[in-house]
Amino acid sequence: MSTPPLGPQDNPDPYYGAPGQPQYGQQPGQPGQPQYGQPHPQQAYGQPQNPYSYGFGYGPPGGAELANWGPRVGAALLDGLVSGVPVMFCYAIFLANVLSRADRSYPDDRPEAWAVVVLLLGGLASLSLWIWNRVIRQGSTGQSVGKSALHLKLVDARTYQPIGPGKALGRDLLRGIFDQACFLNSLWPLWDDQKQTWHDKVLNTYVVKV
Predict the structure, then answer these.
(1) Residue 6 in domain
(2) pTM, rounded to two decimals
(3) 167 in a domain, yes or no?
(4) Residue 205, strand partner residues
(5) Integer Cα distance of 126 and 105 in angstroms
(6) Is 67 helix (H, G, I), strand (E, B) or coil?
(7) What is the pLDDT of residues 135-154, one digit of tens each?
């Protein structure tokens, strides 16, 4: 007495047949593969077979290339120069005034009031340039003056978009804290798979080439 063929109700998996056994009324297929004409289970539910993942070991979305350590350092130095020029210039004026009065007796050996005002104005100008360049410009466009000159961009690791002024401010403050605590923060992109500093990792940001 022969055994009747299995029907669909007898197959525990309607998409995958048992090895070596074709499903009822269908042509034989490869073991463990969907039969011809049937969608993959994930496709049947509207899901992609290979959803994109942003886990460890993946680069930023959009196919961008992560920036190397050297250009990042160069961009940071340019940004420091942009914001540092006013205070350095005004400090030179202040110092010249101090030295010109050094051979005088007290109280004439003190710097003059106008020289102190110049120094304070230089500090305010440098602070304003830092806020404009590193917080507003970089947060809104992803590029400070230094990054723009070296074709780099700061982006959010999830959206690949500029991170906004608030997050840019927090990133620079964290950078200062981490750099003061340990110089390895600035060196970390040299061996990190994602080429991130510690403040990049905390705020989930990338610096990419553009």
Answers:
(1) no
(2) 0.68
(3) yes
(4) 156
(5) 33
(6) coil
(7) 999 999 999 999 999 999 99
Is 16 within a domain?
Answer: no
Which residues are 66's β-sheet partners? 208
Rg (Cα) of the chain, in Å, rounded? 31
Specify whether the CB–CB gap between 75 and 147 falls below 8 A. yes
Largest Cα–Cα separation, the chain? 125
Mark the ranges of the chain whose per-residue pLDDT is less than 70: 1-63
Region of 130 (left: φ > 0; alpha: ψ -120 to 50; beta: rest) is alpha
d(CA 162, CA 139) in angstroms, rounded, equals 6
Q: HSE, CB side, 13 Å, CA atoms: give it for residue 171.
A: 27
User: Distance (Å, rounded) from C-alpha 99 to C-alpha 109?
Assistant: 9
State which residues form the domain around 192: 65-209
Structure confidence at residue 64 (pLDDT): 79
pLDDT single digits (tens) 44-54: 444 443 333 34
Token pair listed for 18: 């048992």
Q: 154 - beta bridge partners? A: 207
Residue linked to tokens 């610096």: 207
Looking at the domain assignment, is residue 131 inside a domain? yes
